[in-house]
Amino acid sequence: MAGWEGVAGSLASGLLLGGMLALIALGLSIALGVMKLVNLAHGEWLVGGAYLGYFALQWAGVDPFVGLLGVGAVLALLALPLHRLLIAPLAGQGMEPPMMTMFGVSIILQNLYLLAFHADSRAIDTPYAGAPLAIGPITVAQVYVYGCAVSVALVVAVHLLVTRTAFGRDLRAASADPVAAAALGVDVRRVHALTFALGAACAAMGGVLIGTAFSFTPSSGSTYLLISFAIVVLGGVGQVLGTLVAGLAMGLLQALGGVIFGDGYRDLVGLVLFLLVLALRPQGITAGGRR
Residue 167: which H helix or E strand, with range? Predict the structure, then answer.
């Protein structure tokens, strides 16, 4: 068993990683909360963002944190025509057709990534990626601190967008009752398209953060999709700040599982917690209001 400094460092790293995971899960949560869309291609948006961040650094020397918003904007712009062509025509036909459509998109994107980039493992290599940062007796990776800080800032920005803007008002109305919202003049189709694009942007920016901390491959998205589902269930569907709290909790609990049982059991702890919450409190641990 490692000394208390090592255990504290592992738990602190898990908490910081949880902050980054929250941004990824947020994109899934808002799509599910507003559009009732189970986006099974969400992990592929993340991988796409990681590749964009990687090549922006390799080809143009753009630091991943500097280019973060640009990566999110690119994926959002790519998501808009996808929504128009594949998702919008299925409106009103239940959850299953859009879900299966996005499953097909997931398979196609994975194969396109494999064709373009092969199965090689890559990472966004920056000078601070592996550099340690000492906080008293606790040592964590610098990239975890930077990534968590940026992620929390972006989640709070989305919260303010949802709660303090006209678009956020329309989004909440479309989420609560799309028929009534449309009758009151809300362009529900436009709200859904922008929500889909926002979800893709959150996943892509989270992918850049993950790509600076870990290696990734064309098939890495499936792991983060499962973790994102667990965080959404923990935090409550469509709850922005609840997703942040759940992400931090998930990262901390995964780290605790790694300390107690070994690193190979990190994901197992998170998925067991996911099943328990789904069975005992399906509305989420932070549910009490909508957002």
Answer: helix 166-176
